[in-house]
Design goal:
613 residues; alpha/beta; 9-stranded mixed β-sheet
């Protein structure tokens, strides 16, 4: 079956060329705020005029270099220097390769060894790491040190002396600032010109580098142009690093439209971080209207809200009803709860997010439909996005006026789709199959050793296998089963999604991180590995009472974790049992991808570090 989506209106074209950003768009926005970055005790603005001047200066520096199509790797958090570098690299038709600072050493070395970079943008915090990578891998790149702004990641890092080959971004900006408007590279006339090297998530193996063309980027911005819509007085709060391909589309769309983006680069699920940062922005009069985050954030936000309701006697029963309604699958009954309490809870949630928040965008993995429904009843719309790096970020997406919980929205206009090898699965009414797509956002290929292009997994007639099992309805709405290579086969033909099950376990306030695995094919249960949220647990009245009565910490902990596992199991219909007889305690948080998916191959290799209780 091959059914292109012909039901949605094509959005207005955002970019005819990436050169339009420095060529015309940024100048139109003038002194409007482009970004706000965390300087530790406050947020600092960068205007579009400043961004244009800084990116233009760096573009002129790139144009003065003799070799075209240089590889520019970035190793830093979201910050204004990243913005100016990305814009300058695209304008001059060099190749941007953003690498996440959370990548482990083996992943970084593997990716950098494919094609050593010519230039690296690094923060002060990552400078020593970049030096070490050069020494171990034997390449010499020019290191651009991000020193135009002081950001939170620079806290506690001394400036130090620059070594040969290390350049101050501030000095480059000052040298090239008054040299006229930079000409766009003629290579941008060719839509096949490669502009991006973006890493895959690496959940089932080491990450790979996908080669993204100019044509891919323009098509992706066109298809996603209406994802973010704000008034001039509103901000989008960015929680996801620009190392993820879906956030590249957010970056380009917001810069094209002239929207303000506030960068939250701290971990939002650490105690008090989210509300403290929102308060700093609110104190400056910033109105956060929307945010972009991964499913794990929405889980964290809901359990924080429910925990707060427990502490308010008047609203405690509302939290209990939300949990009961979710468990029994009758979320529409939430509208029958006391209207005054429901309004109070909506206000409480909005206040936690600054008072003006109304919608969020969730990307990178399947979002629990119950979360979408609960937040919707509480006055917040959560838009689900499904994508792949090989498709320049987005394959399907929801719209503000078109939410269907359990789906990732409609497949993008311009993308054709089909389901290969359809089959019947327990729990699914319609046959599901491997989703395959083709269209203008499908990437040029992978980066091979020595810089060569390796082909994508295309069929002879040009279809890309996404690797995801799905069902697509007659309106081109996607319902995901999961990534086929990650799914756990179970008796009766069931396929279980361990990433989804793990996220359900983290819904408990006692759980900081969790992983569900089938440790051995003959094991009749699924094992649960948990990193407890010890600071919260040690504040819990019941836990403290049990320890005071003579129980060990583990004995007092066990009931909390058992409840978390049983609650997670109650939220999903499946034949497999989550084991509560033996619960495994992790000594640390799980290593996750930049999009917060569990690195299953890595974590399964070190299960022996856990202890059973």
């Amino acid at each position: 079956m091959c059914t292109p989506d012909r039901t949605g209106a094509t959005p207005s074209r955002g970019l005819a060329s990436i050169a339009d950003l420095l060529g015309s768009h940024l100048a139109r926005h003038g002194d409007a705020v482009a970004t706000r970055h965390d300087a530790g005790d406050r947020y600092v603005d960068t205007t579009y005029a400043e961004l244009l001047a800084n990116a233009g200066a760096l573009a002129r520096w790139f144009l003065a270099r003799p070799a075209p199509q240089q590889l520019v790797v970035t190793l830093c958090k979201n910050r204004p220097e990243w913005d100016m570098t990305a814009l300058a690299v695209f304008h001059t038709a060099n190749i941007l390769c953003p690498l996440d600072i959370t990548l482990n050493q083996g992943e970084l070395e593997g990716l950098l060894s494919l094609r050593p970079p010519d230039v690296m943008l690094v923060s002060r915090a990552q400078l020593a790491r970049a030096r070490g990578l050069q020494a171990r891998l034997g390449f010499r790149a020019e290191l651009l040190v991000a020193d135009l702004h002081f950001c939170y990641e620079d806290l506690g890092v001394s400036e130090g002396e620059h070594l040969p080959g290390e350049l101050s971004l501030r000095q480059i900006r000052d040298q090239y600032r008054d040299c006229g408007a930079p000409a766009a590279s003629p290579l941008l006339d060719d839509p096949a010109t490669i502009l991006g090297h973006y890493a895959t998530s690496g959940t089932t193996g080491l990450p790979r580098i996908v080669r993204i063309s100019h044509g891919n980027i323009v098509a992706a911005v066109d298809a996603g142009f209406d994802i973010v819509n704000l008034r001039p007085t509103e901000d989008v709060l960015n929680i996801g690093a620009y190392t993820h391909i879906a956030t590249l589309i957010e970056f380009l769309v917001t810069k094209t439209k002239g929207f303000a983006v506030s960068y939250l680069t701290r971990e939002p699920d650490e105690p008090d971080v989210l509300e403290d940062e929102i308060d700093k922005l609110r104190a400056r009069g910033v109105r956060v209207k929307a945010l972009m985050a991964v499913p794990k954030f929405w889980i964290y936000l809901l359990k924080e809200l429910l925990e707060e309701l427990k502490g308010k006697p008047v609203l405690r029963d509302l939290g209990e009803k939300i949990l009961a309604i979710e468990k029994n699958g009758h979320l529409q009954n939430l509208g029958m709860i006391d209207k005054a309490k429901l309004t109070a809870t909506r206000l409480l949630l909005r206040d936690k997010l600054g008072g003006h928040f109304s919608y969020g965008i969730s990307s990178s993995s399947k979002l629990d439909p119950a979360l979408v429904e609960i937040f919707g009843k509480l006055g917040i719309t959560v838009l689900d996005i499904y994508g792949a790096t090989e498709c320049t970020g987005i394959i399907a997406r929801s719209r503000l006026n078109e939410i269907h919980p359990g789906t990732c929205g409609r497949i993008l206009p311009g993308l054709e789709w089909r389901l290969a090898r359809p089959r019947s699965l327990p729990g699914w009414v319609e046959p599901v199959g491997l989703l395959e797509v083709r269209g203008p956002t499908v990437a040029a290929g992978y980066l091979g050793v020595g810089g060569a292009t390796e082909p994508l997994a295309l069929s002879p007639d040009g279809w890309l296998a996404t690797g995801d099992l799905a069902w697509v309805d007659e309106q081109a709405r996607v319902r995901l089963v999961g990534r086929e290579r990650e799914l756990i086969p179970w008796a009766g033909g069931w396929l279980l999604d361990p990433q989804h099950l793990s996220n359900l376990v983290t819904r408990s306030i006692a759980v900081k991180d969790a992983m569900v695995v089938h440790t051995h094919p003959a094991d009749p249960r699924l094992s649960v590995y948990i990193f407890p949220d010890w600071p919260r647990i040690r504040q819990d009245v019941r836990w403290r009472r049990d320890v005071a009565a003579g129980l060990t910490e583990d004995q007092a902990l066990r009931p909390h974790l058992g409840e978390a596992i049983r609650y997670a199991a109650s939220l999903v219909a499946m034949p497999a049992e989550l084991d509560t007889n033996r619960i495994w305690i992790l000594p640390r948080k799980l290593e996750r991808t930049p999009t917060h998916k569990i690195k299953y191959i890595l974590e399964r290799s070190r299960l022996q570090e856990a202890r059973g209780i």
